[in-house]
Amino acid sequence: MELLLEPSNWALLAVIGLIAGFIDAVVGGGGLLSIPALLTLGIPPHTALGTNKFAASFGSSMAAWTYYRQHLLRPSFWYMAFIATFIGAVLGSVLVYLLNAQWLEKALPLLIIGIAIYSLLSPNAISDTDCQAPTKAQPKLKQSLQGLLLGIYDGFAGPGIGAFWTVSSGSLYKLPLLHSCALARAMTFTSNLTALAIFGFLGQVHWQIGLWMGLSMMLGSFIGARCAIKFGMPFIRPLFILIVLSIAANLAWSAWF
């Protein structure tokens, strides 16, 4: 934690937060940058996850609000997903807290690498072909299962959760890309806020770092959501994944070898 006394590290956290927020708002996966950055600074794994939830809440709220204002999200269509995501995030947060910190430190890099490889190998998982904006609420069972499973994952760890929401929503409901992104941001905000409440109660949040990175994520998410709405940026994924793989490989080397 002595590394946090260095001004350069605070600047680094701000830059990473800005980039992570931008990427999160466009394609999802900002946690693949922010969590390794927190771990690299020597923050314990459980505290790194809790701090990231705090920071990510800023970014996901800004992105969700931006999409909502553009009429890309109707919360009344997705109330079952909100409920299921909340329940899943509670279960996942409690489960990860019960895990041994040393085991978690070794498992997180492998989890991050796995998700990065999945995202790299499925760059065309999201498509707007034959997709139409939803005009009614989607099936409750699909919403419940999707929300519960992804809520558990986000409460447990969360790297890449935005990408999982975007890909699965496009597949399950045949949503256009921007509507899938909007739903992903709203649901990740729900699970982030829920997990944050539990991590905070358990004393596993570094509030100063989370606030600093969260404000940067909020700015990045605003820019990213606006760019996604105007342009769409799927071309950033390969470069992003390669950077994340490098960071995760370094963490894995430190944790395992």
TrEMBL record:
<dbReference type="InterPro" id="IPR002781">
    <property type="entry name" value="TM_pro_TauE-like"/>
</dbReference>
<comment type="similarity">
    <text>Belongs to the 4-toluene sulfonate uptake permease (TSUP) (TC 2.A.102) family.</text>
</comment>
<dbReference type="InterPro" id="IPR052017">
    <property type="entry name" value="TSUP"/>
</dbReference>
<feature type="transmembrane region" description="Helical">
    <location>
        <begin position="177"/>
        <end position="203"/>
    </location>
</feature>
<keyword id="KW-1133">Transmembrane helix</keyword>
<protein>
    <recommendedName>
        <fullName>Probable membrane transporter protein</fullName>
    </recommendedName>
</protein>
<keyword id="KW-0812">Transmembrane</keyword>
<feature type="transmembrane region" description="Helical">
    <location>
        <begin position="77"/>
        <end position="100"/>
    </location>
</feature>
<keyword id="KW-1003">Cell membrane</keyword>
<feature type="transmembrane region" description="Helical">
    <location>
        <begin position="12"/>
        <end position="39"/>
    </location>
</feature>
<keyword id="KW-0472">Membrane</keyword>
<keyword id="KW-0813">Transport</keyword>
<dbReference type="Pfam" id="PF01925">
    <property type="entry name" value="TauE"/>
</dbReference>
<feature type="transmembrane region" description="Helical">
    <location>
        <begin position="146"/>
        <end position="165"/>
    </location>
</feature>
<feature type="transmembrane region" description="Helical">
    <location>
        <begin position="107"/>
        <end position="126"/>
    </location>
</feature>
<feature type="transmembrane region" description="Helical">
    <location>
        <begin position="209"/>
        <end position="229"/>
    </location>
</feature>
<feature type="transmembrane region" description="Helical">
    <location>
        <begin position="236"/>
        <end position="256"/>
    </location>
</feature>
